[in-house]
Amino acid sequence: MSPMAQKRVILFCLALISTIALSIVVAAPPATVPGIEFTAEGKLKLPTDYRHWMYVGASVTPNDLNRGAALFPEFHSVYIDPESFAEYEKTGKYRDGTVVVKELASVGGKEEPSGKGYFMGGFNSLEVAIKDSKRFKDEPGYWAYFSFEYKPTAEKEAGPHATVACNKCHQDSAEEDFVFSQDYPVLRASKPQSK
Amino acid sequence: MSPMAQKRVILFCLALISTIALSIVVAAPPATVPGIEFTAEGKLKLPTDYRHWMYVGASVTPNDLNRGAALFPEFHSVYIDPESFAEYEKTGKYRDGTVVVKELASVGGKEEPSGKGYFMGGFNSLEVAIKDSKRFKDEPGYWAYFSFEYKPTAEKEAGPHATVACNKCHQDSAEEDFVFSQDYPVLRASKPQSK
């Protein structure tokens, strides 16, 4: 090999090493979200402050339309942590670290002066979905799912559900990246290409 | 009247005048809320940024339960401006200047993997309630009500509804200070005495 060829090989190797080093530095860890903490054993602590997050929409699966025992009883109010939502508004993507919270409330009444329908009663439970490529590297899409029952008192910690319990259904039926954005108009209205 | 008695009367009058003057200075004007503006003619401009406000709950009065034409079609998502909400958390009162926004969305679907029920479609319109003791001094409770239709494009301005159109029903049936807090669990959970 000529000295010139040797020099080219050395330069190529240096460039390659720099590129690899740079990509390691650039690969950001999953974002952390205030109010979201794990125990040393990897259980999720009951989230705090999520009612001040970004509300993206609601749905209702009432017991009376689900043979008296809805899978999710009954109103679903869905929130996304504010920084991940701001990122979604810019990119249309759920960033690594995104937390989606679904707080469930019972049906409290079925008629008001505004009409017949479903009106919220008290809170039942909290469902949490977290996308984290480090902590949940083995879950499809890196999404893990947790539940906290409120009765008789709110559970303080919860381990992730088995993949087949929640992730599978989100993988099969959610419109974008395991999120049922098809049911949440604030998400649809906030996605960059819809503006 | 003795000089001493005269002096007492003068001191009393001065104290009274000071008290009245102080009460005029202390009586704060209604709070202003970012994103809420009026035209010179007193019409409300279409509010902005309310989707980042405090969500307090949702209800649904679907067309199919209201003879095909719900009074409010169909999902109601209710927000309160953040500073008025923070005041409510402290005092349990809606401060002068409070703005409550109700964004209406159609029913988009009636079944998802989570069960049978009602799922949100697109946005229809915006309803706004404002409590303002100066601007709406003649309205019961100082609350005035506005509507903005979104179709074909969002209306840019709206005058207040006649008292009988909205205020009357809120006066008769809303649980506290013209607000249907009975249907919004975040309000119930945030009121000081419930903590």
Please provide a written account of the structure:
Two copies of one chain form a homodimer. Chain A is α+β, with helices and mostly antiparallel strands. Chain A contains four helices and seven strands, in the order αβββαββββαα. The first copy, chain A, has helices spanning 3-26, 82-91, 167-173, 185-190, and strands spanning 44-45, 54-60, 75-80, 99-112, 115-131, 143-149, 157-158. In chain A, strands 2-3-4-5-6 form a five-stranded antiparallel sheet. In chain A, strands 1-7 form a two-stranded antiparallel ribbon. In chain A, strand 4 (99-112) and strand 5 (115-131) form a beta hairpin. The longest helix of chain A is centred in the N-terminal third of the chain and has 24 residues, at 3-26. Chain A is elongated. Chains A and B meet through strand 2, strand 3, strand 4, strand 5 and helix 3 of A and strand 2, strand 3, strand 4, strand 5 and helix 3 of B. Strand 5 (115-131) of chain A pairs antiparallel with strand 2 of chain B.
